Amino acid sequence: MGELLQFPGNRAGSGQQEGVEQRSAPSRRSRLPRPVREQTLDDIERLAGPEARRRAEEGSPPAAGEDDAPGWAVPGVDADEPAPLPTRTSKRAENVAIAALTRHDASEGEIRAKLVAKGLPPEDVEAEVDRLRRTGLLDDAAFAARLVDRLRDRKGLGDQAIRSTLRGRLVPQDVIDAVLLEQAEDEETAEARLQEVADERARRLGSLAFDVAERRLTAYLMRKGYSGSAVRTAVRSALEGAGIR
Q1: Taking a C-beta distance cutoff of 8 angstroms, is the pair 161, 151 a contact?
Q2: What per-residue confidence (pLDDT) applies to 22?
Q3: Helices 140-153/173-182 angle, 10° precision
């Protein structure tokens, strides 16, 4: 048999090229808000084990065999580029935004307006809004959908009033249109809600003359975002049910 040939570009038994340095991914700790970061760490531990979680908490690169494990990547962080060092104003932008979202639900426009009102530089404002959007803490479509549910179920508002409220919360018009289309009610459900609102209000007007009660109830329903012949029908039925003639 001939002599076993050794190629200079290979190391015997290694399969690696000479001169190619194997580098691990740069370590970097996530600066995500605590609830998102904790969920990510829980996923890492579930999929890659406690040691992987410890490495993630310390900002260490994954051990051999862990780098391809699902759940290692942190949402909103590009592993190929070093994270920019926070500045005083960027850190303040983060603190202001997280404090606002902790107090109440907010749209992207509301958070941007709050940061601008604090006198923060435009680049820090947009960077923070973008960071919150990428991590899922700002989502105008989800925010609008939650608000539509609350306004219908708790306040009995019609679509016209809901549109006005969403605009006042700085939700973009295209998002408003898409959410209301997706959550559109059938005619029977909408009329039933209108009648329920009218009946509840009519019970408070029992001491008034019919024409006065009719005007007040009609105006009330229009302020609630209802209009058209459905309002007239609901008013007549509600006043009759309340014994106002």
Answers
A1: yes
A2: 47
A3: 60
3-state secondary structure of 75: coil
Interior/surface letters 61-88, b for 16+ CB within 10 angstroms, e for the rest: bbeeebeebebbebebbeeeeeeeeeee
Q: What is the DSSP string of 150-200?
A: HHHHTT---HHHHHHHHHHTT--HHHHHHHHHHTPPPHHHHHHHHHHHHHH
* Axis-axis angle for helices 34-48, 50-58 (nearest 10): 140
Quote the CA–CA distance of 189 and 166 in Å, as a whole number. Answer: 21
CA atoms within 13 A of residue 245's CA, in its CB half-sphere: 3
Q: What is the pLDDT of residue 49?
A: 67
Residue 2 token pair = 């001939």
pLDDT of amino acid 228: 87
Mean pLDDT value across the chain: 80
What confidence score (pLDDT) does residue 7 get?
A: 43
| Residue (of 200, 202, 226) closest to 214 by Cα position | 202
Number of residues assigned to the chain = 245
Question: What average pLDDT score do residues 73-94 get?
Answer: 70
How many percent of the chain have pLDDT more than 90?
62
Q: For residue 208, what are the contacts with CB-CB under 8 A and spacing of at least 6? A: 216, 244
DSSP label of 73 = S
Confidence of residue 126 (pLDDT cuts 50, 70, 90): very high
Distance CA 176, CA 188 (A): 22
